[in-house]
Write a structure and sequence with these properties.
This protein is mainly alpha-helical and about 525 residues long. The protein has 2 domains: about 1-65 and about 115-260, Serine Threonine Protein Phosphatase 5, Tetratricopeptide repeat, CATH 1.25.40.390; about 65-110 and about 270-385 and about 425-495, no CATH class. Helix content is about 40%, strand content about 5%. It is built from 21 helices and 10 strands. It has a two-stranded antiparallel ribbon with strand order 1-2. A two-stranded antiparallel ribbon has the order 3-7. A two-stranded antiparallel sheet has the order 4-5. It starts with 5 loop residues before the first helix and ends in an 11-residue tail after the last helix.
Length: about 525
């Protein structure tokens, strides 16, 4: 009988780390014996958590090639950006992320070099490593708060990984445009215990079970991380998932599920209790490259050139001035979205509509130190929580709260903004079918704010809208021709073009998933 997929069990050990400073989260595989030793004490088990975080921004381990576009969370967010509507690649350039942009990676599921393999392998590796930590909860010694802090992060990591997998390998569970749920759609296999070479692969579970797992894990994480706030191991390291980041992850899952109450309550706790400040000009206009900013909740501090990944890193692709890959493939904002930005909005300066060679060129991201390839990766900011809470409040019928939240987050951006000028919840069938509603405006401000950093396709899928790309918005003829030639139609919100195929290696190695279980 075949055993569990080689994709994430080729290495079953925990990644260990020796430091938990701002960013020096080194990792190296350990054998199972030393892994058991590490997990006996919370004070040493934290190094295993650090190892997982380190792998979330390290290139070169999740695929057999193409590592310059495979550097963990920021790479996956960028891929989801270029697959959507607001971030445009002006040209193919060196090729990185281009095949995501033109929807030519799905057919490459048999290769260990491309996105399908990369996302599957990485997230199941994080799940496998988190499972070892979770399994050790009862036997782990140390102060109760210390154990809670360590294990709480492992639960959050597992929840996030399953949310990532569901985002990439399934359709959204809820379409608010139709009010229809897809709970019976196939999701991904679920593993909740440490796995080994003799563990048999499991079948795909439906989305109801996958999101049930996500919800259970993130709620357990919140419970533990509340206890862990008093831990001596909790030094305020923003490279760690704390209570409020866990609530942020929960809010994302709730949005995908159409759970407006859960999304609101999670996001508002972050706003009211987290101590984060809405960013203003100094936080927004400095290149988005420091997790020390008061509006940043979670990210990866990159302190040395050895940690930066050099060409295999975010800013190489997104710094349109000093990033080598960005210079060969400039990143632009859609002209339609840019036209929605008020002239008094300071965020308009994130792009240059007058650039002669690259109209609407992005200026939002820049290296903090070009010579050393430095710049922190930002995974979550408090502004996201305001837009989430406002959307959820409005969808729940509480327009007063939505207005207050929007006015608060927009005040440092546009002094002329007043959410009370908007009303209604009508959305168009596509993301550029404008209605002028309040809900649409909330989503527009979210799109502008999170451009390039969040993974826009996650929102497109869960909103139930389609995408229409055209040359007038800045999409290249090469992109549009390639999509047309391949029969790509992303104007249909039910499309499977947004759903990756399960890697062939998984089909070959897992006896409980076969070709009949493959996505369309």
């Amino acid at each position: 009988m075949k055993n569990i997929s080689v994709l994430f069990l080729a290495v079953t050990a925990i990644m260990a780390a020796s430091s938990c400073s701002k960013s020096s989260l080194e990792f190296s595989p350990t054998d199972s014996g030393s892994g058991d030793d590490i997990l006996r004490e919370a004070s040493t088990a934290i190094s295993s958590v650090n190892g997982i975080y380190r792998s979330m921004w390290t290139a070169g381990w999740s695929t057999t090639d193409n590592t310059h576009q495979c550097f963990g969370i920021s790479a996956y967010n960028l891929a989801l950006e270029v697959m959507a509507d607001d971030l445009i690649m002006q040209a193919q350039g060196n090729g990185w992320f281009w095949y995501d942009h033109i929807y030519s990676t799905k057919s490459l599921y048999a290769s260990s070099m491309f996105r399908s393999y990369d996302v599957w392998y990485a997230n199941y590796k994080w799940i496998a490593d988190a499972n070892y930590i979770i399994d050790a909860e009862e036997s782990m010694s140390g102060a109760e708060a210390d154990v809670a802090y360590v294990v709480g992060q492992a639960y959050a990591i597992r929840a996030l990984a399953y949310l990532n997998l569901a985002t990439w390998f399934a359709r959204a569970p809820y379409n608010p445009m139709t009010g229809m749920y897809r709970w019976n759609d196939p999701g991904v296999p679920i593993y909740t215990e440490g796995t080994g070479i003799n563990t048999e692969g499991r079948p795909r579970e439906n989305l109801e079970k996958v999101y049930g797992r996500i919800n259970e894990d993130i709620d357990r994480s919140v419970e533990l991380l509340e206890k862990g706030m008093e831990s001596a191991l909790n030094t305020g390291n923003k490279s760690h998932i704390n209570l409020y980041v866990a609530l942020g992850i929960k809010s994302r899952a709730c949005l995908a599920e159409g759970d407006w109450k859960g999304a609101y309550e999670s996001a508002i706790r972050v706003i009211d209790e987290g101590g984060y400040a809405v960013g203003g000009e100094s936080e927004l206009m400095g290149g988005m490259n420091s997790i020390d900013a008061a509006n940043v909740m979670w990210g990866a501090g990159i302190e040395t050139s050895e940690q930066s990944g050099a060409y295999a890193g975010f800013f190489t692709h997104m710094d349109n001035v000093d990033g080598a890959y960005a210079q060969s493939s400039p990143k632009l904002i859609s002209r339609q979205l840019y036209s929605q930005i008020a002239s008094t909005d300071i965020r308009a300066a994130w792009w240059d509509p007058e650039n002669e060679e690259s109209p609407y060129l992005g200026r939002k991201f820049s290296f903090s130190n070009v010579a050393s390839w430095l710049g922190d990766y930002i995974y979550m900011r408090v502004e996201e929580m305001y837009f989430t809470a406002a959307e959820a409040a409005l969808r729940s019928g509480d327009s007063d709260s939505a207005i207050s939240l929007m006015n608060t987050v927009m005040a440092p951006r546009n002094p002329n903004y007043n959410a009370a000028n908007y009303s209604g919840t009508l959305l168009g069938a596509t993301t550029t079918t404008w209605t002028g509603s309040f809900l649409e405006n909330i989503l527009i401000q979210r799109r502008v704010e999170l451009w390039g950093e969040y993974g826009r396709l996650f929102d497109v899928k869960r909103l139930g809208q389609g995408i229409v790309r055209n040359a007038d918005d800045g999409f290249s003829s090469e992109c549009l021709t390639s999509m047309s030639r391949n029969g790509i139609d992303i104007s249909d919100p039910d499309t499977y073009d947004w759903v990756m195929l399960i890697p062939q290696d998984e089909l070959d190695a897992n006896p409980n998933i076969n070709e009949g279980d493959q996505n369309p």
